[in-house]
Design goal:
mainly alpha, about 55% helix, globular, binds zinc ion, DUF4186, DUF4186 domain-containing protein
Length: about 160
């Protein structure tokens, strides 16, 4: 008989709850270096214009291309300080390089990130962006733009933040 129980009794990274993600973000945000990163109104507008699913796709791509290798190119300097909400989120959440992932998230260096690690890192980034968007009212940052082509009716309440 195969054992029906999961192989590990500890929760996996990917199944960490919103509360756990918030705990990690609160802990990391106590660093004054991390706490100084915020989405600008333009970043918030971009995120809302593109929508949650697309920003999540960008995040997954950046992580896959810039962080997932055992020893990524230019490690420690591969994440720009501006230019995309995900980049800011990475600096704010200590998911910017393998050193920060090791130090703040316990993900060891010199091994490729597993799929589970990548899902976790994207979840951390997306949670930070959600928290930032909650801080930034819609009206102040959407007013100058025409209605977005990317938004569709019937988005989930989670997506409504964006
Ligand atoms: Zn870093």
């Amino acid at each position: 008989m195969p054992d029906p129980r999961p192989r590990s009794s500890t929760p996996t990274l990917a199944t960490r709850s919103v509360e756990t993600l918030d705990g990690a973000l609160d802990r990391i945000g106590r660093s004054s270096f991390r706490a100084k990163f915020h989405l600008s109104p333009a970043d918030a507008r971009y995120a809302r214009d593109r929508g949650r699913r697309e920003i999540e796709t960008h995040a997954a791509r950046f992580i896959g291309e810039r962080l997932a290798a055992a020893d990524p190119d230019n490690d420690g300097r591969q994440t720009p300080m501006r230019g995309h909400p995900v980049f800011l989120a990475q600096h704010a959440t200590a998911t910017c390089c393998r050193g920060c992932l090791a130090k703040h998230h316990g993900i060891v260096k010199h091994h490729p990130l597993t799929d589970e690690h990548q899902v976790y890192v994207v979840a951390v980034i997306m949670r930070w962006i959600e928290r930032e968007l909650r801080r930034l009212p819609h009206d102040s940052c959407r007013a100058p733009l025409p209605p977005s082509k990317h938004r569709r009716p019937g988005m989930s309440s989670d997506a409504a933040l964006f």
